[in-house]
Amino acid sequence: MPGAPTAKPESLGMSSERLERLDAIMQGYIDRAETAGVVTLVARKGKVVHFSALGMRDVESGAPMTEDTIFRIASMTKPITSVALMMLYEEGYFQLRDPISKWLPEYADMKVAIPAPPSERISGRYKTVPANGPITIQHVLTHTAGLSNGYRGITQPEYAEAMANFPPEETDHERIRRLAAIPLNFHPGEHWEYGLATSVVGVLVEVMSGMTLDAFFRERIFKPLDMPDTYFFLPESKLDRFAANYTRGEDNTIQLAEAPDAESRWVREPHVQFRGAGGLVSTARDYFRFQQMMLNGGERDGVRLLSRKTVELMTANHTGDKENWLTGPGYGFGLGYAVVTDQGPAATPKSEGSYHWGGAYGTISWVDPKEELVGVLMEQIYPYTHLNIRPDMKSMTYQAIVD
After folding, report:
1. How much of the chain is helix, strand and coil, in % rounded to 5?
2. What's the CA gap between 356 and 351, in Å, rounded?
3. Domain for residue 2, yes or no?
4. Is residue 365 classed as helix, strand or coil in its secondary structure?
């Protein structure tokens, strides 16, 4: 496939025979109707050694999965948004410890929600105290800002009320303004907690650059890196490659959640919600090119987006030993990626220093600098956590390394 140079696995220290196990394991999930279809890609030293499409893109129409199928990648948008902001860092727009209120004044003078002591009489579930410092750009890049979210924290009801209604004509900037009105779950920098922080990152890109996030991505990342199938909203002309989205039905088997048609929220007008935390669709080939740029130290095919030193900064652990409840032990967090800090507690074959992120519909991609390896898994099912398909992708990749 153009833009994804290939090589025989044996020429790069991998076994063709052992890579066949990857297909066999993925086919098992399809045969059990636990997922409709998958695309898997493994590259080493810049060359694709495995690229496979199995199962169905759309079970209802009988359309087979293909290597160029387009998927909702959801939170795999986050590394791209983080790269966009760090491109502006390299142009002198900010320092990581700058408060975000320099660009988003609604985030000045934030309050933190805390349970009231038993001796105090209050009218609600919590009281607020002034934050012990500003939310910085580093905080929103690392999910340590304390922002209210729908996963955990004392302000979940307020978050649900304020954020449940996200009409299609509302921009992400407007949503982030509403988020600023909710007290923080903790003082900035105290803990790691997942949420909409990367949408704040995307809004910062827009405010600093004067461009919409859609335009910035297209002009400064997708076109230079030759990623022609990555969009916030898929053109109707490419619907014939769009995957259906599924959910977990009875007995863990799939049932249709969203058809791949013009009524999909990833397609239909208006096209104004450019969500830095999770709005993109893409292909395995396009995302591989983005990840290979990172592995190459910020450059791909003569196009440089970042300095090698900025990539090193992004993929270092910025969160110390703070618990990362989403990945579990053995991981830290960098600027847009989770980072393996201790291979044993992480229970992963990925090398220490590897970095990754996945999406809500079962997609995932990682970079292993030590092994010069990129992996990409694309599927479309939510929820996906009842399946081992993502860790199976990794173990089947690494067992094929034979050098």
Report:
1. 35, 20, 45
2. 12
3. no
4. strand
Residue 397's alpha-carbon distances to 29, 41, 50, 75, 198, in angstroms, are 17, 10, 9, 22, 29
Q: Is position 181 within any domain?
A: yes
Reduce the DSSP state of residue 329 to 3 states and report it. Answer: coil
Transcribe 36-66 into DSSP letters.
Answer: SEEEEEEEETTEEEEEEEEEEEETTTTEEP-
**Phi, then psi, of 144 in degrees rounded to 5:** -120, 15
Q: What is the pLDDT of residue 250?
A: 86
- Single residue among 209, 225, 257 that ends a domain in this structure: 209
Element (H, E) at 230: none
pLDDT the model gives residue 124: 82
Q: Is the distance from CB of 4 to CB of 212 less than 8 angstroms?
A: no
Query: Can you give the CATH number for the domain in which 296 is found?
Result: 3.40.710.10
Residue 304 and residue 108 in contact, taking contact as beta carbons nearer than 8 Å: no
**Strands 127-130 and 111-114, sheet pairing:** antiparallel
Q: What is the span of the domain harbouring residue 124?
A: 83-209
Residues 127 and 247 in one domain: no
Same domain, 163 and 22: no
CA distance 225 to 260: 26
* Residue with the two structure tokens 């009105």: 181
Distances (CA, A) of 382 to 69, 196, 252, 266: 18, 19, 11, 15
pLDDT in tens, 27-66: 999 999 999 999 999 999 999 999 999 999 999 999 999 9
Assess contact for 233 and 265: CB atoms under 8 A: no
Residue 314: name the closest of 303, 305, 323, 325 by CA.
Answer: 305
Beta carbons of 213 and 172 less than 8 angstroms apart: yes
Burial readout 201-223 (b: 16 or more C-beta within 10 A, e: otherwise): bbbbbbebbebbbbebbbebbbe
Indicate the helix (H) or strand (E) that contains 67: none
Give the tokens for residue 200: 């704040």
Q: pTM for this one?
A: 0.97
Number of domains in the chain: 2
